[in-house]
Amino acid sequence: MVSGRHGQRRVPELCLRVCTPPLGGAAPSLAARPPGLLGESLTTCQLSSVPLQMMLYLSAAYGALYFLATLLMVTYKSQVFSYPPSHLVLDLTLLFLLGILEATRLYLGTKGNLTEAEVPLAASLVLTVAGALLCVYFLLWQTLVLWADSVLSATRLTLHSLEAVLQVVAIAAFIS
Fold first, then answer.
1. Model pLDDT for residues 23-76, shown as the tens digit of each residue
2. How many CB atoms lie within 10 A of CB 4?
3. Are strands 9-10 and 2-3 parallel, antiparallel or unpaired?
4. Can you tell me the distance from the alpha carbon of 68 to that of 63, in angstroms, rounded to the nearest whole number?
């Protein structure tokens, strides 16, 4: 607690949220507030999505785990099983493409969410769909699919679908 004028106590860093008033309504007035009871700064409504930001952080951590685990499994499969060299090159190329796509997707998603910009968030949504398609490849269509591949890819698809829903909700909030 911080002491204000004349020994009054006030809450530090408390901000009054001023949003767009309803149609025909008047804007909130600050003239009637007692001095020192509210913080001195005004902020506008924040539209950034905290659940989306949490999903982006979780997806970044899981993306690194997924990339390393899949790389190790492709290496294991190429050593233990009969793995055609052309298919090995295809799987590794798609895995590295997925890593680059994921880093770009997470950057645009975080930037779009924190700056409340629709364009980077929409680009991240498109890259989320592309990343989901690559996950489907690793889930169903790669040369050899291990049980661990299935579990990792299904979990990643679940994260992508939750993120896509949250991105659509955030874009709708930014536009309105």
1. 555 545 444 444 444 444 445 677 788 999 999 999 999 999 999 999 999 999
2. 13
3. antiparallel
4. 9
Q: Does the pLDDT of residue 138 top 80, yes or no? A: yes
Please choose, from the candidates 175, 118, 130, 123, the residue with its C-alpha nearest in 3D space to the C-alpha of residue 157.
130
118 vs 139: CA distance, rounded Å: 31
**CB within 8 A of 69, min separation 6: which ones?**
148, 152
Q: Which residues pair with 17 in a beta bridge?
A: 43
Instruction: Pick the closest to residue 124 from 69, 171, 61, 67 (CA basis).
Output: 171
**Over the Cα atoms of the chain, what is R_g?**
24
Q: Cα dihedral sign for 128, 132, 133, 138? A: positive
DSSP lists the bridge partners of residue 32 as none
Predicted TM-score of the model (pTM): 0.73
